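Catalogue entry: protein
Contents: sequence, fold tokens
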Amino acid sequence: MTNQHDFTDTMSPIIELMYSQMRMEQENEVMKAVQSIGVNVDKERLIQALTDAHRFWQEGYDACLQWKPRWISVEEALPEPFVSVLVYMPGERPLPTVHEGFLAREGVWYANHFDREPEEITHWMPLPKAPTEEEV
């Protein structure tokens, strides 16, 4: 009876061969597509450029997955005018409060149905994305 370790050791070279074959087929398809539009390009350079582009895309995608919203100090940056954001108002009574608001005109904020003075809001954060149809 073959255990899991033996099976994996046996299959590994086969999987590598299949992957190599698949990659060669993909490279050939890319070259055919490029040549069909009349572009003459060195295959190795094209494959390297596509590999680099994929790596850069993957790094950006991974960074997006790692991104976590954070509070931004109004001294660091301000949101675009009239774009809804979450605002933190530490002086709100009876407790510090978070509301939806936006920067209106000349540094005046609007939050919780009132115009706010600039010093009332110390931090802001972009709103999360709305739920998708699948999430509703």
